[in-house]
Amino acid sequence: MFSSVFSGVLDAFSQDLAIDLGTGNTYIHVKGRGVVCREPTVVAVFQNRRGERQVIAVGREAKSMLGRTPADIQVIRPVRDGVIADFEIAEALLSHLLHQVVGRSPVVGPNAMVCIPHGTTEVEKRAMRESAEAAGARVVHLAESPIAAAIGVGMDISEAEGNMVIDIGAGTTEISVLSMSDIVYARSLLVAGESLDDALVQYLRRQHGLLIGPRTAEELKICLGCARPPKTVQTMEVKGRDLSSGFPRSLNLGSDEVYAALADSVRLVLEGVLHALEKTPPELASDIVDRGIVLTGGGALLQGMDRALRETTGVPVIVAEDPLAVVVSGSARMLEGRLEIETTGLRMNVG
Ligand code: ADP
Ligand code: MG
Known about the structure:
By secondary structure, the chain is α+β, with helices and mostly antiparallel strands. Helix content is about 40%, strand content about 25%. The strands form 5 sheets. Strands 3-2-1-9-10 form a 5-stranded mixed beta sheet, sandwiched between helices. A 5-stranded mixed beta sheet has the order 13-12-11-17-18, sandwiched between helices.
């Protein structure tokens, strides 16, 4: 009796969490509060002579140090293409962000739904699970990102009908076809947000003899990037280092040039989607034509990306309302559904 009342009180303090530890950004959703954390998946560490590492900055602050640190400070991106590449640093990042959102000592460790890319190996799943546990999560469930994305945008994927979700993240573009709450076709392209940044770095080097860093390239992409030729040309001042003189130099770059620099990478994404549609069984493909393609991830925000996709495929394209955080919101919904269902003794197939 006492224990059940007491556990009721404790439950009020337990905070169900959904975590999307992405290549570019980490999102955390807390039940009842919404998406409370959107930080770059970046950690700055100081390494002493004995090789011991000490975290000095996390998230936005660490990202701002990229390319600006002395030799004994490293800026690390612990997730590569959706998979943990540096376990110790991923855990440090998660535990820092979790403490930030749920406080130093949560009374009860929270339940967590953690997103993983489709096709994650058992070893990679274990790394993700252990990383969340070590950071303080009590019970860790795993959700496949494409399913979470679909649930996040409110698609009904339980029917025997085809749905396509395209997530353009930092490292990869994930194209998935879902039916009956499961993934029936998936394809991962290595062309995504960072490839666009790289394309801008290469373009400026080749066409203007100007060397820019990845942060400047990303800023340029976010400000002027477009997937279709711009109707009116906008310009932005870009600062970098002149390749021949070695001195700092700036130039005004137009969005028409940015478009030209990004065109090849954008085309690779469009071709990847066409290929996926060709490989989709005909019944499911015709459902997709009726229901449209849902576009998520930061790359969905590239100007004209939705229209370019629509023009290439002939299929309507719907951009998720908050394309960056839709996966974590969907995971939160899955966790809520799962816990309700588990307490009534039923099981739900949520991946
Ligand atoms: P991940 O899931 O891999 O962490 P996100 O979905 O968080 O990736 O998206 C991050 C990517 O989206 C980065 O490459 C970032 O540069 C890009 N991005 C963010 N905003 C925009 C924008 N407005 N236009 C184009 N790309 C954007
Ligand atoms: Mg993502």
